[in-house]
Structure formats: structure tokens, C-alpha cells
Amino acid sequence: MSEKSLAERVEQWMVGQMPIIQMHGGTSVVREANEETGEVVVELGGTCSGCGISNVTADNIRRDLIMDFEDVTDVTVRTASSGDNGASTVEGGRGGELKHETESAGHF
């Protein structure tokens, strides 16, 4: 029996967060989880792009992953900037140019 990879463990953790995210029409995916460096990249999609509090969600994900996983040292959370959450986009409504959550999506 092999131990789960960092990516699998982080994905399982994110699934536990999904009811909250999905309740608001959002989606998430773990894009990267580097076992050697401890770096994790999470992408938020659906209605998270263009949401006024997606930066709070991103901060909570970043803080909680670092606190809950000894081997996670750095977390980047990205959201799509376009606010596109239609059926024509891929992977749960993600679309548009990716930006770090600290960058303005230009929706206000």
C-alpha cells in the first residue's frame, strides 16, 4: 500500500471545502502539488471569477493548506479574470486569462 501523493491529499482536502464553494456556484481544481518544494497551485473557477470575496476565499485556502499540511510551504490561488462560467469553458466553468487573486479582475 502506497501513501497518497501530496496532490491526492490536497485534492481530497479541497473536496471537503467544495460544499461551501459550490454553494456559491464556484469550482476548484488542484493544478500543481510539488512533493519536493511543497508548492501548491489551486485554481478557482465558476462564479469565483468576478466574485468580490474570492480574495477572502483564496486567503483562507492558502492559510488552511499551510496549517493543515506539514509538507506544504507555499500556496498560490488563481481565479479566471473573465468571469466566464458558461458551459463552453473547460473544467467546471473555468475560462479566461488566469490572474493571481491579488490582481484586479476589472469587474468593478
TrEMBL record:
Basic and acidic residues bias spans: 94-108
Polar residues bias spans: 79-88
Domain NIF system FeS cluster assembly NifU C-terminal: start-end pairs: 19-75
InterPro entries in UniProt: FSCA_dom_sf, NIF_FeS_clus_asmbl_NifU_C
Annotated GO MF terms: iron ion binding; iron-sulfur cluster binding
GO biological process, one term: iron-sulfur cluster assembly
Superkingdom field: Archaea
Pfam families in the record: NifU (PF01106)
Region annotated Disordered, chain positions: 79-108
Protein name (database record): Fe-S cluster biogenesis protein NfuA
Taxonomic source organism: Halorubrum alkaliphilum
